[in-house]
């Protein structure tokens, strides 16, 4: 299923016009807290370099606005920079693990 304005390529990738995000923000009513929760849960899936009591690192291939909100909430280090991964606080790692298990693990 395609959203209006997205282009489906033969490679399977979808691309959006440059102004798509801004236009959807004006027309879509979505819950940023839910977006943050699911993104944090998915960060658990891509964690590496776990250090007990200190958190972990996770690959940062998610929406920048969401990553900035997670940083403001204290779950991750500042996502702005050249590194391909972001530091997760211990609180962020444990919360991510809890959310991942809640939303994605079979019961």
Characterization of the model:
The chain is globular. 43% of the residues lie in helices and 17% in strands. It is an alpha+beta fold and 107 residues long. The chain contains 4 helices and 5 strands; from the N terminus they run E-E-H-H-E-E-H-E-H. A hairpin with a 5-residue loop joins strand 1 (7-8) and strand 2. The chain has a domain at 31-104: Arc Repressor Mutant, subunit A (Orthogonal Bundle). Helix 2 crosses helix 3 (64-72) and helix 2 crosses helix 4 (90-104). The protein starts with 6 loop residues before the first strand and ends with a helix. It has helices at 20-27, 32-45, 64-72, 90-104; strands at 7-8, 14-15, 47-51, 55-59, 85-88.
By CATH, the architecture of the domain at 31-104 is named Orthogonal Bundle
Largest sheet features: 3 strands, antiparallel
Using the alpha-carbon principal axes, give the shape. globular
Radius of gyration: 16 Å
Helix count equals 4
Rounded average pLDDT:
84
CATH class of the domain at 31-104: Mainly Alpha
> What is the N-to-C succession of helices and strands?
EEHHEEHEH
Order of strands across the widest beta sheet? Answer: 3-4-5
């Amino acid at each position: 299923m395609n959203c209006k304005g997205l282009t489906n390529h033969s490679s399977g990738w979808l691309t959006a016009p440059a102004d798509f995000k801004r236009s959807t923000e004006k027309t879509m009513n979505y819950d940023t807290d839910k977006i943050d929760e699911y993104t944090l849960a998915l960060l658990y899936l891509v964690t590496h370099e776990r250090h007990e009591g200190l958190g972990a690192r996770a690959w940062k291939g998610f929406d920048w606005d969401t990553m900035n909100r997670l940083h403001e909430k204290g779950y991750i280090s500042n996502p702005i920079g050249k590194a391909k991964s972001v530091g997760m606080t211990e609180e962020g790692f444990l919360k991510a693990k809890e959310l991942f298990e809640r939303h994605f693990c079979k019961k």
